[in-house]
Amino acid sequence: MGVKSMVGKLDGMLRVGEAAEYLSVTAETLRNWDKSGRLVPTRHPVTGYRYYRQEDLDAFLAAIVAKREHE
């Protein structure tokens, strides 16, 4: 499989900066959440860069809101 076809599989994915902006946090916060297992990114098959699916970010936000509502 060529690099171009692998990159095409990442359509619809958000890069770290985009995901951080979407969640209103810093890129470093996302990296920390990755290290702790709170929010697991998809890794680019060639570069290893982190990418996030918007559906995963939405689910993460929903879980935070639900937790706060039950506190």
UniProtKB/TrEMBL annotation:
PROSITE patterns documented for this protein: HTH_MERR_2
Domain spans labelled HTH merR-type: 13-71
InterPro entries for the chain: DNA-bd_dom_put_sf (IPR009061), MerR-type_HTH_dom (IPR000551)
SUPFAM superfamilies (UniProt xref): Putative DNA-binding domain
Name this protein carries in UniProt: HTH merR-type domain-containing protein
Species, as recorded: Novipirellula caenicola
